[in-house]
Amino acid sequence: MKPAPFDYVVPASIEEALGHLDRGGGDATILAGGQTLMPLLALCMSTPSVIVDINRITALKGIERTSETVRIASVTRQNEALANEPLAAALPTVVRAISQVGHFQTRNRGTVGGSISLGEPAAELPATAVALGAEIEVHSLRRGERRIPAERFYLGPYSTTVEADELVTAIHFPLWPANSLIVFREVARRPGDFALVGLVGAIAVNEGKITQAGLAWFGMGPTPMKAWQAESALFGENIGDVDPQAIADLALSETEPFDDHSATADYRRSVGRQIFVRTLSDALNLRKAA
Amino acid sequence: MSEHQIQLTVNTRPVQASVEARMTLGDFLRSKAGYTGLHLACEHGVCGACTIIVDGLAVRSCLMFAVQADGAEVTTVEGVANADGTLHPVQQAMRECHALQCGFCTPGVVMTLASLTADDARPAADTMLKALSGHLCRCTGYQGIRKAIDKLAEAGTTGGRA
Questions:
Q1: Can you give the pLDDT at residue B155?
Q2: Model ipTM value
Q3: CA atoms within 13 A of residue B79's CA, in its CB half-sphere
Q4: Are strands A144-149 and A181-187 parallel, antiparallel or unpaired?
Q5: From the centroid of its chain, how far is CA B141?
Q6: Residue A16 is part of which domain span?
Q7: A106 — contact with chain B (CB < 8 Å)?
C-alpha cells in the first residue's frame, strides 16, 4: 500500500517545528528517522494531515557529555550513538542496548529520540532510559521546556506523557560510577526483532558492596517495567551475599507479562527468571574475579 | 497534499523532479527516475530488498520519502559496477559464490555489503553477517551469501573470519 496524501513541512529550527505542531492541533505528526512511522503510513494505520520532518534541524543532533549527564539530542541516529566513543566510555549499557535496536540498515536512519518517544513496550531504549534514571527533555511553543523522568514517561503501549504540541528534543542520561557493571540480555526470535523478554540496567560496586542498581524489563508489561524492589534489595549488599534467585523473584513481582502471538505470559515469566538469574550472576561473578 | 521540487544525485548523475510528498524514495527511483534495479518487495521496512546507499549509508528506500532526499547523493545497484562493466567486488564475490537464486533480494544485499566495504574497508565477516540480518531471502539462499561474505573478508588484509 501507499501512504495517504499529506502536507509536508521541513522546519529548519526547533521553534519552527513547534509552531507547526502548535498549529497542527494534534493532526501533525513528527517524522524523525521514520523507521516505525513510514511502515504505519504505508499501511495507512496512520493518516496525518501534516508531517513535520525534523531531520534537518541541526540543533536536534549530537551527543554532549557534561559533568553529571550525557545528553543525546533526539535526532541523533542510532548508529551514530553506537559509534560515539565518549558515550561508550560513559554509559556502555546504553551502547549495548542500541546495538540491538532494529538492524544495521534501520539504525542508519532510526533515531535515539524516535525509539524513546515511540514507547514500544518490547523495545530496548525506553527500558534503558527507565533503568538508568534518564530524563526526557520536551519542548512546546506555549509551555517551553519540561523534563520528564523516564519512569513516569510511559503510560502504556505506544503511549507517553508527550502532548500533541510537544517535541522530544533530547534524552539526559545521568552518569553512573566508572566501571559500573552492564546488565543486558534479551531473547528474540531473530536478530533485529523486538524482544520477547529483555532485561537492561547497570550495577555500581565499590569495595565489594553494591552502591547503586538500576534495572528494568522490556517485553514484560505494557511499558518498560522498573524493578524497584530488586534494586533496593541489591543496594548496600555485599556481592557475595546476593541471592540471584531471591532478587529475581522480587524483580518478577513487578512485571505484567502478556500473551501474544509470539509467546505466552508464562513463557515470558519463565524465560525472564532465567535471564535475570544468569545476567545478574554473570555480572557479579565478573566483578569478583576482577 | 503537497508537491515538492527536488534535486539529487543518483549514481553520480543529477536528477531533478517534482514529487508528491507521500512518494517514497524507492518508488521515486523506480517509477520516476527509471532505476528499476532497485527492488521493492514488502514496502514497509521488513525485507531489505530496497536497500540503497544515501549519503554513504545503507538505508531502506521504502522508509524514506523522495522529498527527504533533496540534496542527497544516492547510489543504487546500477551504480556500483565500473563503467566498463567490471563488477564491484561484492558483485564479483556473490557471482563466484552463487549468492543468489531468484535474485529479488540481491540488489539490497549488494548495497548493504557495498556500503560496508566502501573505500576499501574490509570489515570482519561477523560484522557483515550481522548486517545481513536486515535482509530476507525468500529462496532461503543464505549459505551462498555467507560464502560471499567470507570471501570478501578474506580478500582484506586485516579482516578476519568471525
A1: 80
A2: 0.94
A3: 22
A4: unpaired
A5: 18
A6: 7-53
A7: yes
B4 at interface of A, judged by CB pairs closer than 8 A: yes
Instruction: Check CB contact under 8 Å for A105 and B65.
Output: no
Contact A81, A112 (CB under 8 A): yes
Q: Which residue of A has its CA nearest to B52?
A: A105
Tell me whether residue A266 is in a domain: yes
Q: Which of A154, A174, A194 is at the close of a domain?
A: A174
Is the whole model's pTM more than 0.90, yes or no? yes
Contact flag B20-A5 (C-beta cutoff 8 Å)? yes
A19 touches chain B (CB under 8 A): no
- Domains in chain A: how many in total? 3
Cβ contact A8–B2 (<8 Å): yes
Domain membership of residue A124 (yes or no) is yes
Q: For each successive 10 residues of chain A (290 residues), what is the average pLDDT?
A: 95 98 93 97 95 98 96 98 97 97 98 97 97 98 98 97 97 96 95 92 96 98 98 96 96 97 96 97 71
| Contact yes or no for A55 and B68 at CB 8 A | yes
Note the pLDDT of residue A285.
81
CA distance readout (Å), A83 to A62, A109, A289, B69, B137: 12, 14, 29, 24, 29
Class of domain B3-78 (CATH, top level): alpha beta
Nearest C-alpha of chain A: how many angstroms from B98?
24
